[in-house]
């Protein structure tokens, strides 16, 4: 088996047993990137020298008889909104082009300690604002299933890298669905952990009360192994949870048996129906029937406040963005335009932001600034926070009746590039199903559950806060059941 088609777990096992070297694995993936990324545009920056040096260190440790960590030698693609020491970090924005951070984010430091080989930084919607990776200042990323379609967003570079066999693992960030939606439309697994379960230190902030980094993988077990490596308390992040992380790896292994006896699955009635593609609805309904056959009790659950999640999110997130992005002032770091020795600081700042920020970022900053302005704060931002509370209460009531909630991850399969770029509301609708869990801070995973017209469909599994292991257990069962129904893993149906 070629390294690029192996799972992360298989690669780690082969490296640990000396069947293949970590350098050979890394080089095979760099060769794949060279072969396909001109077309996909998943990567913005490659760290070839650093990755090969890390791989050599793993090979030396194995040769010396050291016990290797669970993912040692496994390559990874890192979303370019997470800072990396001595490697350019842009957030896919002109305003940060050329910026080289002096430190590693906590999750990068943890991955390096775990022997994970970071190949490079992946494309995204600028500052993670988007659902198609078309808002990048460095060009759109394309979906490996169909290069005329989006790989989702904002973590589309990471999802395309995994689906395109450029890396077996990737890190994305999820503010309103930016891990789960890309995972769904590229046929891979993506998990948004409980808010605070993974450190945000070194994650360039979009919306501080919503941003959460998490794993992508081609299998549920691979995602769980990466989750285990990056989770845990971080004193450098004031929102970091101190509670011990659940055993997501054990849950993924248990769920693979597809025995869900004793589990109650709630189907959210508000997340479906009109506006959802028929093929998506059919694939999700078939999967829910399979869960019932696997022993789960299936019940319908109403969460009426979910209908207001879209409006609440697009007040809260832009408001926080307008504050967070104020740091890009042409003084401390990043782009500086219009400084001719005569212009005032205000003029330099204005010209720099005009040249450095893209249209979607400007739109959200303006919206957020308006929502926070005097006389409007209570009417907009304050009301949105009240809706957020109602959504959290709906989750609490739902989890009194069931163990997990399920829904489609996205109302549609991957849509064509260019189809929604001039229609922000249509673009925002891609996150209809993922927004409630983001606003509530609860964990949610997307797992492939079928095909619609030859394109992947994702099932979203949501669980209570701190119960990420439930997401992995049910997702692993879905993976087993879907593979059996299709005759082979869903990603194997890709013509890539």
Q: What does this 3D model show about the protein?
A:
The chain is an alpha/beta fold and 496 residues long. The protein has 16 helices and eleven strands. The chain has a single domain (3-303, 396-493), classed as Alpha-Beta Complex (Amidase signature (AS) enzymes). Helices cover 39% and strands 13% of the residues. Helix 4 links the parallel strand 2 and strand 3. The radius of gyration is 21 Å and the shape is globular.
Tally of extended strands? 11
Low-confidence stretches: none
The CATH H-level superfamily is: Amidase signature (AS) domain
Tell the overall outline: globular
What count of domains describes the coordinates? 1
State the share of residues found in helices, binned by percent.
25-40%
Q: Count every helix, treating DSSP H or I runs of 4 or more residues as helices.
A: 16
Q: What's the helix-strand series? A: HHEHEHEHEHEEHHEHEHHHHEHHEEH
Main CATH class = Alpha Beta
Structural class: alpha/beta
Quick check: average pLDDT? 96
Radius of gyration: 21 Å
CATH architecture: Alpha-Beta Complex
Share of β-strand residues: 5-15%
User: Remind me, CATH topology?
Assistant: Amidase signature (AS) enzymes
Largest sheet, described in full? 11 strands, mixed
With strands numbered from the N-terminus, the spatial order across the biggest sheet is 1-3-2-4-6-5-10-11-9-7-8
Q: How far apart lie the N and C ends?
A: 17 Å
Query: Which assembly state applies to the chains in this document?
Result: single chain
